[in-house]
Amino acid sequence: MLKKFFSSFSQDIAIDLGTANSLVYVRNKGIVISEPSVVAVNQKTGQVLAIGNEAKKMIGRTPGYIVAVRPLVKGVVSDFEVTEQMLKYFLEKVKRRYSFFRPRVIIGIPCGVTEVERKAVKDAAKNAGAGDVYLIEEPMAAAIGAPLEIQEAGGNFIVDIGGGTTEVAVISLGGLVISKSLRIAGDKLNEDIIYFSQEEYKLLIGERTAEDIKIKIGSAFPLKERMHMSMRGRNLATGLPEEIVVSDQEIRHAMDKSVKKILNAVKVTVEETPPELLADIMSRGICLAGGGSLLRGLDVLITKETKIPTKIIDDPLTAVARGAGMVLEDIEKLHEALIETEYLELPR
Question: CA-to-CA distance for 266 and 270, rounded, in angstroms?
Fold first, then answer.
C-alpha cells in the first residue's frame, strides 16, 4: 500500500486549475465540481463575495467597488490571495464531513511555468487547506485523460487549448519529449472579437458577448454554410446601445492571427519531433483537448496544414481533470507523470 500519498483516512483530490474554468476530481467519485475561475471581491473591504458560477453572473453587472476577477492569468497565479480563497472554496465543498486530515492534492499546471510560478500554486493550495500538493503538467494530464498510451515507446501528440494557454506536446515512455506552452488560447480569441467590434463597427462589447459569438459562429476554417449572429453593445461615437449582425467570415478573420499562432506552434513541434516518433504520430494522429479545441474547423485546419489526421478527443473540456484523476486512481502505475515524485512512498 502507499503509506504516504494514499490513505484511507484522507481524501485525495485532483484539480484542473484553469484560467477560465476549474474542475475538481475526487478519488473514487470522479469530477464533482466544474465552475468558472472567477472571484467577486468587494474592493472597499477586501471581502470575497462570491466564487465560481455566482461570481461569473456578476461580471459587468456590479457597482464600481465590486469587481469580478480571475485570479489566474494565462495559466499562472496573478493574485495569490484570491487564488487561495478560490482553492479554499473548492476544498471546503468536497471535504468529507468530520474529516480531520488535510486532503492530498494533484494540480494541473501549464508546461511552460517557472519554478516561482509552481511554488505559488503549491503555496496557495497548502494555505487553502491542502496537505501534500503534487503538480502535473497539463498536456501530460490531458494525454492520460484522452486516454493515450503514454507509457509505450511510441509518439503521442496532444494539443490542449484552454482559456489562457495552449499546450503542445509530444509524449513517449511516460515523459514529455517536446513541449511548448503558448499564452494564446480561448481568452485571446475573445479579445480579438472585442477588438474587431471596436475597430470595424465602433461597437463596445463585453467579454461574455464576445465568448458567446465565438461559440455560436466562430470558426478556424471556412464553413459549408454561412452563419450570422446579432452583436449588441454600446456605440462608441454616440454612447447609445446598438445592434449589428456579423457573419462567421468576419469573426474568422478577427481571430485569424491568433489561430495562426496556435497552428504555427503545432507545425514547429511537428518539425522538431524525431522521425521515429513522427511515424507513430502520422499513424495515430494529433489529439485536441481543452475547450478551445471545440472551435469549428480547427481540427480540419490542422489536418490540412500538417498533413497529419487530427481529431478532438471525447469530452475535451474535462481531459486534464480526468487525467489527473486517473493518476490518483492508479498512482503506482502513473506516478512518473507527476513533476515531483521524490516524496511518494511507493511499494517495494
Answer: 6
What per-residue confidence (pLDDT) applies to 61?
76
pLDDT number for residue 281: 97
pTM: 0.90
Q: Which three cell numbers stand for residue 113?
A: 511555468
Domains defined along the chain, listed by start: 12-141+318-337 (3.30.420.40), 149-184+257-316 (3.30.420.40), 186-254 (3.90.640.10)
Percent of the residues in the chain that have a pLDDT greater than 90, as a whole number: 70
Eight-state DSSP code of residue 160: E
Q: Are strands 21-26 and 30-36 parallel, antiparallel or unpaired?
A: antiparallel
Q: How many C-beta neighbours within 10 Å does residue 332 have?
A: 12
Alpha-carbon gap, residue 143 to 170, rounded angstroms: 10
**Which residues have CB under 8 Å from 45's CB, separation 6+?**
none
Q: Count the Cβ atoms, other than its own, within 10 Å of residue 7.
A: 14
Q: How far apart are CA 330 and CA 186, in angstroms?
A: 31
DSSP 338: B
- Which helix (H) or strand (E) segment holds residue 159: the answer is strand 156-161
Q: Helices 138-145 and 319-329: crossing angle, nearest 10°? A: 80
71 with 77: CB under 8 angstroms? yes
pLDDT, tens only, 38-97: 999 988 888 889 999 999 888 777 788 888 888 988 888 888 999 999 999 999 888 765
User: Which of helix, strand or coil describes residue 315?
Assistant: coil
Per-residue cell: 127: 494555505
What pLDDT does residue 99 have?
A: 58
pLDDT in tens, 177-221: 999 999 999 999 999 999 999 999 999 999 889 999 999 999 999
